Winged helix-turn-helix domain-containing protein
Amino acid sequence: MPKEFNLIYYMAQKIGKPLSRNHLLDKIWGLRYEADSRSVDVHISHLLDKIELDPKKTEYIKTIRGIGYKLVASQED
């Protein structure tokens, strides 16, 4: 749970900005290599289950293909 909180808190500070998996690994986990980027995906998935009405049609956390994720305010893309 603390990682999820740290992740959403960090993303809220960077609202609207695309954040790469590697960047999030560095800032939240303190890791600087690509091997564990799947950890970000797993934690994002848990957040989607908690904050989205439909985790398949997200409103707040958007996947940016080939980059990572971004947190958006309401219906913003």
